[in-house]
Amino acid sequence: MPVGRDGQATEPRSPGPLPQAEGSGGLSPARAAAGEVPPRPSRLAYLSLGSNLGNREGNLAEAVRRLAGTSGVEVRRVSSVYETAPVGGPPQGDFLNLAVEVVTTLSPRELLATCQRIEADLGRKRSVRWGPRTIDLDLLLYEGVTSADPELTLPHPRLLERQFVLLPLAEIAPDLVLPDGRTAAQASRMDRHSSRGQKRARPRFRG
Ligand code: AMP
């Protein structure tokens, strides 16, 4: 069951369109005129992490640690680690993958920038598309936001095609409603027999 902004369980829901601009952000005109800054809303978001170079488990654990250490990001759930064969790209080693649920006051773009900074800090070089990588962080879903911008497409355009995304996501958010109306649990069960994904151990991380 997904968790709402107040920490209460909520009904499964699909991400909706971009929220409307809220003028003064909910402050009274007098408070807005006085220069008061409204608190930024907290949103749920889901990320997919993968690594197939170097110390793969260590890379995942370090990326989660850095996410958890980012101001405005609270890591709520981390899936087990799944070992999966690479999809597309040149011949390369198997990936370790996991999914993370965060509650964040960062905007979608700020959260993407955080992911890209962590990738750069952990030594990822963008050379071959779909080639081996120290660490890859993808933003899968951001509560209440859809976007067709190629720089940040939400929900992630390949979310439903990838068993290595769906399996860990279903573990931490089985009732999450995906763009095609299925829950994460239903979508991951559909492909289970064709999956080469194998569940492995949970990495240690400091949350
Ligand atoms: P990749 O090499 O697979 O990590 O893809 C990174 C590129 O995809 C970057 O240029 C991002 O701006 C873009 N992108 C678009 N939507 C997303 C998303 N939801 N999560 C992560 N990267 C995205």
How do the strands and helices of this protein lay out in sequence?
Blueprint: H1 29-33, E1 43-51, H2 56-68, E2 73-78, E3 82-84, E4 95-104, H3 108-121, E5 136-142, E6 147-149, E7 152-154, H4 163-172, H5 184-190, E8 198-199
Antiparallel strand pairs: 1-4, 1-5, 2-4, 3-4, 3-8, 6-7
The structure holds adenosine monophosphate (AMP).
Characterization of the model:
With about 210 residues, this protein is of the alpha+beta class. The protein has 5 helices and 8 strands. The strands form 2 sheets. Strands 1, 2, 3, 4, 5 and 8 form a 6-stranded antiparallel β-sheet that branches. Strands 6-7 form a two-stranded antiparallel sheet. A hairpin with a 2-residue loop joins strand 6 and strand 7. The longest helix has 14 residues, at about 110-120. It starts with about 30 loop residues before the first helix and ends in an 8-residue tail after the last strand. Bound molecules: adenosine monophosphate (AMP).
